[in-house]
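User: ok so my PI wants both of these folded by tonight, can you help

Assistant: No problem, let's get them done. Here's the first:
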Amino acid sequence: MGNHLHLLLMEDKEPLDTVMRRICGSYVLWYNKKYGRVGNLFQDRFKSEPVEEDEYFLTVLRYIFRNPVKAGIAAKIEDYLWTNYTDYIGEKNQTDRDYALDILNGDREKAVRKFIEYINQDNDDKCLEIKESRQITDHDAINIIKDHCKVGQGSDLQMIDVDRKNRYLKELKEHF
């Protein structure tokens, strides 16, 4: 995944947005210093969704592990350079895998077998599907806004009442 990464984290005392702000902030400082650059590094803020049920936890885990294969980056899950899949099946042990394996079976050996079988099942998992946004020019954006909001000039937008302006913004976000 050249332009993003997937994390499955269990929130504890510190809220997830605080954790991510700290991680991203530290990484940006390190990266900018190392490569002699300044400014933003990430295109967008992180995206998240709650995982509250064990079944969905396993679905998300499978989605994450299979994503490089689905994207054509790796032939097999374990071939992907940045996977921790091998931690779960016992070849390495750097990940806290107890929660995931205990969902499947209390016996570790059986749980690992079930885990391998589950992760490798054909599926059509969809997790936090992000709608791809398309890049448009400023000129095109201005024309879209003028057409949608039925104004002649961009400055005419200032004359629109707040409620109508908010409705237009919501509609534009949904469509573009």
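One down. Here's the second:
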Amino acid sequence: MALTWGIIGTGGIAHRFAGNMKMSGTKMVGVAARNFEKTKKFAQEYGIEQAYEAVDEMLANEQIQAIYIATTNNTHVDFIKQALLAGKHVLCEKPMAINTKQFDECAALAKKQGLILEEAFTPFHMPVMKKLREIVDSGVISDIKLIEADFCENIGELNDDSRMLNPKLGGGALLDIGCYPICFASLFMDEIEDISAVCQKQNGVDVASSVVLNDGKRLASLSSSFLTSLPRDAVLSGTKGNIVVEHFSRSEKFIVDVDGQKQEYVVGDSEQAWNYEVADFNRYVEVGHDDGELEQSRKIVQIMDQIRDKWQLVYPFE
């Protein structure tokens, strides 16, 4: 089924989402954000029927079935609850919630309302990930013993007032980009038994970190940074070979290497990441449940809670 959408937020990620939705012909009925002039321009650019000055006005529109939230991290939970109480399904940008307590509150409300709530983690929805799981399960590289994944992007001169570094807005590299390596690793790990984590801080939030997860059978070495850039590749290392996943956050290709013999797999299109995400979301609404993604998201926020505990990083709105 094809849903009609409303969008909260007009920042960079909202532009990418709306652009993809426009190209795919998805019906976008409304958009709301703080700056009404920008909101009107956003609506005009993407063919959205109505720009709203207030979120509650948009949520009152009975045409809108689903809401996409792309605002600063500190506002996600309030907007999620507001949308669910208005009877709308919700797709929220990561992090859906700052901590597990907030996450559980949102998940419980969605269940009570009989609505779908999902976190916008693209790795869950890329077709190549299904093929990757198939290859891993075939045993071609045998048991995975080490996972490596980095999401490091040099964002230039760091301004303490920026969204990225403002603790009042839920800033920091872990929540913004470090969640992706954790997301990828968690897909191939059992329950985490031990976590090691170090970070560099600026303005009270992390700007670079190195994390090691241990589930008793394998390790995951993960890093995130606003200070440097690295290829966004991930590696699954088994006792018989390795798999390199290119641009793992929205991949379309991986390479299996066993004894120097390499085989490349290309599945899907990285440029269609948001369309895959929305297609799955539409299906979840139609059948009344997801494929376990929300529970997987909960595991990710639990891990991030433990990491921040080690760093003594608490946000002022927690």
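The radius of gyration is 20 Å. Residues 5-121 form a domain with the Rossmann fold fold (CATH 3.40.50.720). Good luck tonight!
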